[in-house]
# Entry
Amino acid sequence: MGKLQSGVKRHKQSLKRRARNRHIRANVKSVVKEVRAGISGTDGGKSQEALRTAASIISRAGSKGVLHKKTASRKIARLAKAVHKKSTAIKSP
# Structure
């Protein structure tokens, strides 16, 4: 931590940003787990709703710079692909 006033302020700002980013990342991980749980379960509607929520949270994290925008997009695409695959497998038989 710096001794000058500007250094002290920058340190405080970095701590606030770190806390905010950690919270957002943890939230992203939890919604992804919910989607994965919905995919592994039998209820297709639950996974669709969880995907909508997850896509919103992940894209918000990407727009705020917590995640890289392309990383956020890739995560959403992979989850959507998995949900779609599961829903077509349920309807197919």
Q: What stands out?
A: The chain has one domain: 5-91.
